[in-house]
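--- STAGE predict ---
source: upstream dedup step, 1 unique chain passed
mode: sequence only
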Amino acid sequence: MDLKTYKKIHPVKYYKDHIENNIRPDGREIGDLRPLAINFDSIKTADGSAIVKIGNTTVVCGIKAELAPPKATEPESGFLIPNIEISPLSSPKYRPGPPCEEAQVYTCSLADAILNSGCVNLKDLCITKEKLAWALYCDLICLDHDGCVFDASVVALVAALHTVKLPQLQHNADTDEREVLEGEDRVSLRLSSIPVTTSFAVFCGTIIADPTAEEEALATSTITITICDSTLSYINKSGGDPLEQQLLDQCIENAMKREKSVRSLIRKMMKSKK
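--- STAGE serialize ---
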């Protein structure tokens, strides 16, 4: 029996044999993270954009800014509206049609991760109280799904937000007349923090960092850790047994490495644009 056939017939044992030797089928050790790359200003027709690759997983984010009246309950705030779509081209697992449940869950979690971290102050998007504000529509599409799509989406959105530049407007609240100030430079969006998430999978009692799609499918539980400016922000664990503190500390240490790498890449980009 060749290795490919053995993997299809006995996928759990195939992975277990590798894990017992502290190596994974893609050559990484148990705690190794995949390479991460960010491309900024990828879509010239958008008001902000970025493409992120984590291993083979690829997510593109485009941001479009539109004007809208603020909510009656939040008259001094604008809007940040993310939406994640997992393309049928990204994996044979997905089909054309309405957003899958996984994409809907990721969309809700992404909005929480960005807003709860204080990354964007929605009050900065308000132009005239109760009358006019910016609405940032953030569309994210997964082009290649090989695990940790949510992690790639968070980085893609944060990177794209760093490229957003809004035109300066003059607004008459009485007549609702709006005029773009010609000759004035566009204003960059002010971001207060950089949240970065890193996911882990538990397989046969072993924690695997930055799992691939195959590893996610075989995992008994998952852990997502959010680091914001070198500080632990949030931990989410689903399924499985309680996690020992020592193992959790290892996960946090790994998550800190990725956050530091992402923060460094974004800061280099911002310096190069000045």
